[in-house]
């Protein structure tokens, strides 16, 4: 049996994911913390306990259960993209410590290559937030963060073996030390390696073939924080990843190779209310078929510099506070892609933004945000947003909040959309849209110790000049004119402590209606009003657990409605529901903590298809072990809250 180790074994926090928006109290805002200026928008934080439970999963497997986001998956270790609030894979911004890490070539992120072990904190922001985080945030944003270690020194090693001859390894160290009377240092060093052989015991299910694939994923993360008592902080962040995917490996003529590498580096300096940041990111994509001798090579370098200044006004005589963040960012791209008309493409982008948060009183919060993007050869729209939250009821045992926002969004066309030979379109327009949403959130604490939370949100997101690779024109890219995505989201949670026992439940449901409102050519009239391809009209997730002392059992249900694969909605993939079970126990042994976890995926062996009309694998099993060595207080990790 293979044993694994990892460094998050001693995280603390709630043992369930927050399913409602974060309550934002008056705070002193420093650094780039976009959630603080998202008043009126729905925000969901995934707690450290959930991240710890999912440490051997990729981010899509976690979010599929705890959020209403729909994901398209080609198979284990294969391309996975998000369809956030009825939008396409290009409409979700993914930020790492405030930096957009979507591929500038593709305009999206492959979530199968983002392991939960790659970051310390995760927040999900729903709806358009271009005024706050910039391009791509049309359907929503996924925010990944590194956080300083707090008086912790630990080392961990972890491993997992699972069905189909798949396995993973993780190593990590977290440390904190006082250098002198003014400065302290903390950091994290971790690495991971995943091998997915996908040796399925069957080649097809119900006469549908499984797509054979082998994948290797590896990564190295380094975070260092130097903190001074005179309100200074210097931090350095590195995230190196390498991913190799081979589909149909036994078919020497038809096999395909995709190699992706990402070199992400960042240096930040903050002194009181001024923050400076510089970053360099290199994305490499290699693609080959057959004997792999002729490789299409693509390299993109991104150089980014940002400066921000925070301002705070305490209006004590009026009982309110105003927070302002003024900033500017400049980014330079250099890309070389085999399929482009020019051997080297360069581009400059700039953003000027003003983010404000007005805490009028204990009940009312208002945010007004402004952004203007500048792009070589383009004129992106001015992007404002306004949002507000109001506490309708505020008691010790019950709270009810009304929130709403109106926001403009934009998306800069990808480099492929503009520069790809023949199929690209140098005249493609930036996308522009308006998102409106309104929601209610409530929290109730009973006299028996139960905690109930619930939220319901409705949204209406109209996007003009939606880009699309048109099959009617040999897949040449063009603007679709106009798309309307609208829907309703419901999230519920319950938790109760019974002394030595604890129990909780999280449920989410989403109705996403996403249709094309205007035809883009004479042959497309029949698709007006039809649901967009691969966007499920209904999706839902359920997570429930029962814990007794150091043992926990978790059951999960993931349900996805039918997804249309043709524009006229004549052909579709059937709906399905998956059930997963997780059992775990944490064992303290002096300074060493062991966690053993077993998992059964797709308990009912449900048959379902992916977007290529290939069958997905059936029931599978996994077992993992984490051993953590910690210097400090003797306390159990995740199971103790």
Describe this structure in words.
By secondary structure, the protein is mainly β. The protein is built from four helices and 36 strands. The strands form six sheets. The protein has a 23-stranded antiparallel sheet. It has a five-stranded mixed sheet with strand order 2-7-8-5-6. Strands 3-4 form a two-stranded antiparallel sheet. A hairpin with a 4-residue loop joins strand 20 and strand 21. The two termini are 30 Å apart. The N terminus and C terminus are likely disordered.
| Secondary structure: number of strands | 36
For the report, how would you describe the main beta sheet?
23 strands, antiparallel
Classification by helices and strands? mainly beta
Rg, rounded, reads: 24 Å
Mean pLDDT: 89
Regions with pLDDT < 50 over 5+ consecutive residues? 1-29, 634-641
Q: Globular, elongated, flat, extended or rod-shaped: what is the shape?
A: globular
What is the terminal-to-terminal distance?
A: 30 Å
Report the helical percentage.
under 10%
Helical segment count: 4
Give the strand content. Answer: over 45%
Topology:
Layout: E1 4-5, E2 43-46, H1 48-53, H2 59-66, E3 70-73, E4 80-83, E5 92-96, E6 99-100, E7 121-126, H3 130-133, E8 140-145, E9 153-162, E10 166-178, E11 183-196, E12 204-205, E13 208-209, E14 213-228, E15 232-247, E16 256-271, E17 274-289, E18 296-315, E19 320-337, E20 345-359, E21 364-375, E22 383-394, E23 398-411, H4 415-419, E24 431-445, E25 451-464, E26 467-470, E27 476-479, E28 482-498, E29 501-516, E30 538-548, E31 551-560, E32 563-564, E33 572-573, E34 576-589, E35 592-601, E36 620-631
Parallel strand pairs: 5-8
Antiparallel strand pairs: 1-9, 2-7, 3-4, 5-6, 7-8, 9-10, 10-11, 11-14, 12-13, 14-15, 15-16, 16-17, 17-18, 18-19, 19-20, 20-21, 21-22, 22-23, 23-24, 24-25, 25-28, 26-27, 28-29, 29-30, 30-31, 31-34, 32-33, 34-35, 35-36
